[in-house]
Amino acid sequence: QSRATAKTNYAMKKIVDINWTMNNDIVDSLNFKGYEAKYKKSLVTGMDRLYYDRNAPYEKPVPFYNTYKSSTTVTKPEAYIIPQAYCKIIDRLRWNNVEMTAVENEKTMAVTAYYIEDYKSPNTPYEGHYLHSKVEVSMRDVEVIARPGDVIVYTGQEKDRYIMEVLEPQAPDSYFAWNFMDGILMQKEHFSSYVFEDRAAELLKNNAELRTAFNKKKEEDATFSENARAQLNFIYEQSPHYEQTYRRYPVYRLK
What we know:
The protein contains 7 helices and 10 strands.
């Protein structure tokens, strides 16, 4: 009954917590029972080795931290749109009995997209994955084309907590964290400097706002002002030629 109530309450929430951190302001105490640590000669190495003397028990209070506080909060969207290319994610949602609606006709939809601004990954794998953490995002309103075969996952259902914690990229167990979307982290399009030079000059000539931002950065950043490639890249990133899906999280939020 408590579990059913919790699911219902979560489904009704508009703002939810998706990540937590230890609350060091709240501390309890435990009476720890142990044996004194001592050293004796090792029969293997002849050097000192650690052992615990079972003839010397002791007790002492130790601090016990068992309270967490929210570190990341998000507003629950009306729905998530998942492109059919991410079939491994759709399969897992289906396996967990998440209710989904298939897109039947191609249509352009106004959505909010996350862009991955930063993240950390370990040098060695964990459970066969390089688990991402400390994910930082920005949000932009964009238009995307939903095609037949894509799915829409509406919130307000019994599986809301599962939905939020696997589809929100900053959640510690999100599908992004578990490397299901690493393709977006690789820039697949770029430019050749000798080809882009003339186009960059044209862009600066015809775009006063870009020209102002470009000149300002050269004035404020001495390293940038001496790096021709960095200057071309700055213009490229502000141009229509820039790869718009680079670092764009592919699961979109429907307002």
